[in-house]
Amino acid sequence: MSMEPQEPGFETRVRESFARQAFMATLGAALARVTPGEVEIELPVRAALTQQHGSVHAGAIASVLDSAAGYAALSLMPADAAVVSVEFKVNLLEPARGERVVARGRVLRAGRTLYVCIAEAIAFDGGRETRVAALQGTMMCLLGRGVSG
Amino acid sequence: MSMEPQEPGFETRVRESFARQAFMATLGAALARVTPGEVEIELPVRAALTQQHGSVHAGAIASVLDSAAGYAALSLMPADAAVVSVEFKVNLLEPARGERVVARGRVLRAGRTLYVCIAEAIAFDGGRETRVAALQGTMMCLLGRGVSG
Amino acid sequence: MSMEPQEPGFETRVRESFARQAFMATLGAALARVTPGEVEIELPVRAALTQQHGSVHAGAIASVLDSAAGYAALSLMPADAAVVSVEFKVNLLEPARGERVVARGRVLRAGRTLYVCIAEAIAFDGGRETRVAALQGTMMCLLGRGVSG
Amino acid sequence: MSMEPQEPGFETRVRESFARQAFMATLGAALARVTPGEVEIELPVRAALTQQHGSVHAGAIASVLDSAAGYAALSLMPADAAVVSVEFKVNLLEPARGERVVARGRVLRAGRTLYVCIAEAIAFDGGRETRVAALQGTMMCLLGRGVSG
Q1: pLDDT class for D86, splitting at 50, 70, 90?
Q2: How many Cβ atoms from other residues are within 10 Å of residue B97's Cβ?
Q3: Is A19 in contact with B26 (CB distance < 8 Å)?
Q4: DSSP run (H or E) holding B143
Q5: What is the ipTM of this complex?
Q6: Order of strands, sheet of A30-35, starting from the edge strand that comes earlier in the sequence
Q7: CB distance A118–D108 less than 8 Å?
Q8: Which of residues 116-135 of C touch A (CB under 8 A)?
């Protein structure tokens, strides 16, 4: 499986698409590292993201994992492609607490239409790093539908 | 499998716990119907929740599905129990657009420790209803850990 | 979502394809009811299918759930289509014991390329029926690749 | 997270339990490497395991992935523990063909009750190795229920 980008503008495409995901701004998430087949998103922890016990809500974690996985896929797609999520599965490993959560998405298999991705979420709490969630999911490459990114 | 609540205060417990999920307020989600083993959450659609193509972000959909499933489980748990998500899997069926999305969670199997739940998300767009996502997941019942709800 | 078959020969296509799944014969599984968008497979319980505690192995259950879901999808596909599994998720609800397990697959969303399906496995033990597993998964419709069924 | 076994007899326990999984013998699967938190199962490819297009059936692949993940978990559990599968999700990446498939399971998170595992299946075809499937799932540690392994 090649992790070579199909065109040199992959990082710009990913960053522009991420900037159009209003929900990422609502979460306060920021796009960090973008390399071919791997994307990292940072989510500062704050009260607005918590569930009833004070940890970050599983849905907020799933959201950044999903975007990290989707953009890892988009980074390998053709220039005019758009990416949509087909499905994902998330295992919650530990309560997500601390200063920030980093979601790292990676392409496991790049097909013509379907991309299988994994992602993990790491919580940074003081000096400690804890893996708090893992995702395995499928992303779809859409071509020629009048959408991109 | 019984869908009898284990204690009469189930609805109050669910509503109080939901009110403590700050992330639901951040999303703008509201708790609607609460019956034993079934819970409904309403999410008004707005620009702040969208992904790059203008639909509601899969993560926002997953968030209300997860909470609907979790509270469906909590509604059947003992009075002093707390609920946490173990894992969930979401299939995205159609783009989520319209006025609002309703997430309906239901318990499929209530065990002593683990609850298996399903949930579906319906988008209401004008007069049209579209099933936009389906979740299947596992919730855990925590007892005697100094947390509740 | 239409549950109308796209062509009248759907049942013959499903039965012929099932007959070519040598693994179903190895398991001892038989195709029961085939209707548009719904397929049922029967698996007689026997020692050869068990795990270390004497229940039917989760993998054997997953196998008939996967085939039931896949053939539910194939029943709605065009005449020259082939079906392959993209992914599935299985929750094990109770130990599978008794005389036989019946896997019932159903299409939740029929797209052009991707079909989202659910399936459940019921164990029949004396007069008792127990839901022992639930699947949610994605099937893919392949056209013009020189394979069918 | 520690990948230290809780007791020195872990390999014997895993091998004895695997030997009681009649279904693994039915598949023709053999237990290969057993180390703390990691287990490998080999499945020789043969016609009896195939689906309608001649590849190994997704259910057979899922079966060895599930057992590899479950025994990876068991290798870290106390001496009197039993393991059962809670749920797993499998993505099929490529058709499984060749001489044999090797399933490698690994523990991602070892809790008191729940173990989160991943597993991958590699097909060996002539000199070529292809990753054909990936699993992410949850295993449960049962103590004091009169079963072991």
Answers
A1: very high
A2: 18
A3: no
A4: none
A5: 0.97
A6: A30-35, A38-44, A100-110, A114-125, A128-142, A82-92, B82-92, B128-142, B114-125, B100-110, B38-44, B30-35
A7: no
A8: 116
The pTM is what? 0.97
Which amino acid, one-letter code, is at C99?
E
CB atoms D92 and C82 under 8 Å: no
Residue C37 falls in which region: left (phi positive, over 0), alpha (psi -120 to 50) or beta: left
C131 Cβ partners below 8 Å, 6+ apart?
Answer: B1, B108, B109, C93, C94, C120, C121, C122
- Rounded to the nearest angstrom, the minimum Cα separation between B83 and chain D is 15
DSSP reduced 3-state for D98: coil
How far is residue D50's CA from residue C85's CA, in Å, rounded to a whole number? Answer: 13
Can you tell me the distance from the alpha carbon of D103 to that of D80, in angstroms, rounded to the nearest whole number? Answer: 26
Q: Which residues of C touch A138 (CB under 8 A)?
A: 86-87, 138
Q: How far apart are CA C106 and CA C116, in angstroms?
A: 9
What is the rounded CA–CA span in Å between residue D116 and residue A88? 16
Query: Which chains are adjacent to chain B, needing at least 3 Cβ pairs under 8 Å?
Result: A, C, D
Residue of C nearest to B111 (CA): C93
Nearest residue, CB atoms, D116 vs list A93, A108, A116: A93
Q: What beta strand segments (E) does chain D contain? A: 30-35, 38-44, 82-92, 100-110, 114-125, 128-142
Q: List the strands of the sheet with D82-92, edge to edge.
A: C30-35, C38-44, C100-110, C114-125, C128-142, C82-92, D82-92, D128-142, D114-125, D100-110, D38-44, D30-35
Across the interface, of B52, B57, B84, the residue whose CB is closest to A149 is B52
Tell me the CA distances in angstroms from C96 to B95, C3, C54, one per residue in order.
37, 30, 9
Q: pLDDT by residue (tens digit) across B93-149?
A: 999 999 999 999 999 999 999 999 999 999 999 999 999 999 999 999 999 877 888
Q: Which residues contact B111 (CB under 8 A, 6 or more apart)?
A: none
Cβ pair C36, C72 in contact under 8 A: no
Cα B99 to Cα B90, B105, B130, C109, D56, distances in angstroms: 21, 20, 12, 22, 46
- Contact by Cβ (8 Å): C31, C105: no
CA distance D62 to D69: 10
CA distance D61 to D78: 28
CA distance D33 to D35: 7
